[in-house]
Amino acid sequence: MLHTCLHGTKEGIKRMKILVVGGGGREHAIVKKLKESPLCTELWAAPGNGGIACDAKCKNISATDIEAQVAFAKEEGFDYVVVAPDDPLALGLVDRLAEAGIPAFGPSAAAARIEASKVFSKDLMKKYGIPTAKYEVFTEADAAMAYIKAEGSYPVVIKADGLALGKGVLICGNEAEAETALHEMIDEKKFGASGTRVVVEEFLTGPEVSVLAFADGKTLKPMASSMDHKRALDGDQGLNTGGMGTIAPNPCYTAEVAEECAKQIFEPTMKAMQAEGCPFKGCLMITPKGPRVIEYNCRFGDPETQVVLPLLESDLLKVMLACTSGTLADTEVKFKNESAACVILASGGYPEHYEKGKEITGLVNGQVPGSDVVVYHAGTAEKDGKLVTSGGRVLGVSATAPTLEKALEKAYAASEQIHFDKLHKRADIGRRALNALKGE
Ligand code: AMP
To answer: Which residue CA neighbors atom 6 of ligand 1 most closely?
Structure first.
């Protein structure tokens, strides 16, 4: 069916009505890129947000309401659906859409286990010899503690098996911290069913890289590498967040490291998923350190997408369709030889307590006037004709330029034009990468 859409009729290529599931900065970046495709006639997002509404029609359906998403896709007659967040993928939205005859971008629920279950991904890596941190799986705190004591190496990393909104990874500096973490996860069920099983693993050191890749079940094509800044405060201090800014490409990801990752990680991962009967189609994000795999994500990362997609030269929709139809090997995936930087503007107090509903000023139609910088909306809403904050991460100000230094300058200059009460941003996004480029 997908081929019919692509090859079109005598009149030419059939154009497509597309739905993007999700409503954050990542989805805004996907929507903006899809809009550039000549194949895309009509674009929707569900639920979308206040800024996405400037680029696509929005329908307020929760991304995890699988029944309602499928019903909406059928009702509107979408030709193709892009499922962006991890939860609906793990809940089987792509499988449900396929049953309804609607092709979609993203892995099946079985393949999404590569992110949704740390035990699945660690066991996969062990079975197929993919380099990763040494680990064991436990269901009881006592047994886990006995293993940690026998290993006697700190810090030790304790991970809840399931999805836990990015909060299920605890790095414990000593025995007492490890005891508390295990007790909270297993006995007190702090992360609900996600923590019924835990992975205890060795702490890895070294630079961390995010590599997003398109995958069609057989072939994997990596995108530009990127670097996230997870901590809330400058100098990598404060609490872990969803990400306070990103840069691409990541200077630590040299051609040699990329080649090593291709041979030792990317190709074996694709083969392993095929061998397990759940070929991976969609966007795979791999975070190596060493290079050893820290984690897999089964979808575009947020805010990595906000620096990687602006550098994509090829037609995103064509590449996505190739992932779904298994023709990625014959499809060009090309990136600009430039750099990108994204600075996140967050609500003061994030990732803990913060207020919503603050008026955002400095934007016209969601963008900074007179600037070629792109503002991706993560947590914004429209209220009484005004744009207001509606989440922890509010906006991502993203710029591309011939050098990383220039991209950062542009992103920071544009971010100075945007205001809301208690706005918080890091002042040092990209500093580590700039130092690495200078050889420091
Ligand atoms: P994950 O959800 O597995 O990616 O973990 C979240 C973050 O915790 C990663 O991006 C790393 O910064 C850190 N982390 C996870 N596992 C390890 C490890 N074994 N050693 C060091 N840091 C880790």
So the answer is: 169
Ligand 1 atom closest to Cα of residue 205:
21
pTM over 0.85: yes
Write the CA distances from 306 to 18, 31, 257, 370, integer angstroms: 20, 11, 23, 20
Ligand 1 shell residues, CB under 6 Å? 133, 157, 159, 169, 201-204, 208, 287, 294-295
| Ligand 1 center–CA 393 separation, angstroms | 21
Cα 294 to middle of ligand 1, angstroms: 6
Contact 214, 328 (CB under 8 A): yes
Residue 29 CB partners (closer than 8 Å, separation 6+): 300, 305, 306, 309, 310, 376, 396, 398
DSSP line for 315-347:
-HHHHHHHHHHT-GGGS---B-SSEEEEEEEEE
Whether 2 has a pLDDT exceeding 50, the answer reads: no
> How confident is residue 13, by pLDDT bands cut at 50, 70 and 90?
low
pLDDT tens by residue, 383-404: 999 999 999 999 999 999 999 9
Residue nearest to atom 18 of ligand 1 (CA): 203
Q: Which of 196-205, 277-286, 288-297, 302-311 has the highest mean pLDDT?
A: 302-311
**Which ligand 1 atom sits nearest the alpha carbon of residue 202?**
19
- The C-alpha torsion from 62 through 63 and 66 to 67, rounded to 10°, is 30
Token reading at 363? 């934007």
Q: Do strands 237-240 and 231-233 pair parallel, antiparallel, or not at all (unpaired)?
A: antiparallel
